[in-house]
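Review form for a predicted model. The reviewer records the input and the model, then writes brief findings.
Reviewer: anonymous (R2)
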Amino acid sequence: MRMGRLRSLFSFMVTFVGSVAMWWIYFDSSAHSGHHKITHSNDPGRLARLAYTYLHLPIAAGIIVTAVGDELVLGLLVTILLVVVGVSERLISKRRRAAV
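Model under review:
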């Protein structure tokens, strides 16, 4: 059972680090880069409108796809653990019945 907990903890940490990395990329590097490009553009209003209207669509889609992948990873591990626990409980109960 300890190995299952380690896998779950590892999966949680990987998904958490992925979420933090996306946040960091968006708010740290992309925000500064976007601000620089918009302020030094010939038509900053148009560029800002296009960037903030249309570039957030693939960002939101990427976040949703990542969340679904994280859910599948965590859900799959939980399902595997439940199956292993269920099978081991059945084997233990069969052995106890056989011993009586």
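Findings: The mean pLDDT is 79.
Further findings: The chain has three helices and no strands.
Recommendation: see findings above.
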